[in-house]
Design a protein that fits this description.
alpha/beta, 19% strand, 303 residues, 2 domains, globular, L-2-Hydroxyisocaproate Dehydrogenase, Chain A, domain 2, single chain, binds pyruvic acid, 10 helices, 14 strands, Rossmann fold, binds 1,4-dihydronicotinamide adenine dinucleotide, 3-stranded antiparallel sheet
């Protein structure tokens, strides 16, 4: 008997981010069934039909799905909700997105025990916590896309100045997928050498580079209204690591016992969700992580 093809639901899949994720999953050419779910049925159907056409040249399939079907998928990606207005911090979306996320998790009914919820809607760190509490799934099975996208942005910027492929630059952003994110320079390396010792970085203003990375979403939103291709590809890779139990290490939003909240740190991402790794941060970076945790916790405490 052939192995069952894994199923991914994208709730909010009618919108920009959800459809970019669904398309990326199909474009990655691995066997997968993608269900597009949205409160707007017509939009969901349109996206599913369009992405389904692309699937002809891939290994996956795409169709419209219901909230109940989503609850039985292996990975449940949530992108539904409002997006930032130009110059608006992500954290201000909580008032608009809290009840949407709560109602979506309730609408799925009983969720398959082994499912992993992958939150993308902003503010992602806080909504991951809310989805975990409402769904009742174990903490490791509810994760958020976190600072994986920001880390990709950081590695691209470093690649431009260093002339080294981004995939060979081991560095990342941590903390909040928001204004409290920071570059974990002390853990970064290239070819086994600490990144900060690299001669090509000698005359680079790293504070400015880090600020540019944390402001990149604002820059894109100012220019075109929203961001979606970058997040689409990053989230599809997180989902693939879960579905294939690839155990890749990505900086995702994961529950960190030490800080008693969800936070973006490097984590092993596999079929049971995420698990944390030891961190080797400088004292100053530890302070930044603590301050991001305090910000996230104080916002979570209000809901
Ligand atoms: N975590 C990350 O790295 C990123 C997160 N985002 C976030 O993703 C979210 C979505 O952004 P866009 O796709 O650009 O917005 P959009 O407006 O294009 O799409 C939102 C979709 O959600 C649907 N929706 C609204 N309420 C719903 C409900 N109760 N049930 C099901 N579907 C519902 C809408 O019909 C719409 O299709 C925003 O919160 C945005 O900030 C965006 C980029 C990156
Ligand atoms: C919008 C957003 O969260 C991002 O592009 O990083």
């Amino acid at each position: 008997m052939p192995l069952a093809v894994p199923k991914v639901a994208v709730i909010g899949g009618g919108g920009n981010v959800g459809s970019a994720i669904a398309f990326s999953l199909i474009a990655m050419k691995f066997p997968v069934t993608v269900l597009v779910v949205d409160i707007d049925d017509k939009l969901a159907m349109g996206q599913a039909l369009d992405i389904g056409d692309a699937a002809f040249l891939s290994s996956g399939t795409c169709r419209m799905g219901t909230f109940e079907e989503a609850g039985q998928c292996d990975v449940i990606i949530i992108t539904a909700g409002a997006r930032q207005r130009p110059n608006e911090p992500r954290s201000e979306l909580i008032g608009r997105n809290y009840s949407i996320i709560k109602s979506i998790v309730e609408k799925m009914g009983s969720i398959k025990k082994s499912s992993v919820i992958l939150m993308v809607t902003n503010p992602v760190d806080i909504l991951t916590d809310i989805a975990q509490k409402v769904s009742g799934l174990p903490r490791n099975q509810v994760i958020g896309s976190g600072t994986f996208l920001d880390s990709g942005r950081l590695r691209n910027e470093l690649s431009n100045v260093m002339g080294i492929a981004p995939s060979s630059i081991h560095s990342g952003m941590m903390g909040e997928h928001g204004d409290a994110q920071f570059a974990a320079w002390s853990m970064a390396s290239v070819g086994g050498t600490p990144l900060l010792e690299h001669p090509k970085l000698k005359n680079v203003n790293l504070d400015e580079l880090e600020k540019g990375v944390s402001r990149k979403a604002y820059e894109i939103i100012e220019a075109k209204g929203s961001t979606y291709y970058g997040v689409g590809m990053h989230v599809a890779h997180i989902a693939k690591s879960i579905l294939g139990d690839e155990c890749k290490v990505y900086p995702v939003c994961t529950y960190v016992d030490e800080y008693q909240c969800y936070l973006s740190v490097p984590a092993i991402v596999g079929s049971t969700g995420s698990s944390t790794l030891p961190l080797n941060l400088s004292d100053a970076e530890q302070e930044k992580l603590k301050s991001a945790a305090n910000k996230i916790k104080s916002l979570c405490d209000k809901y």
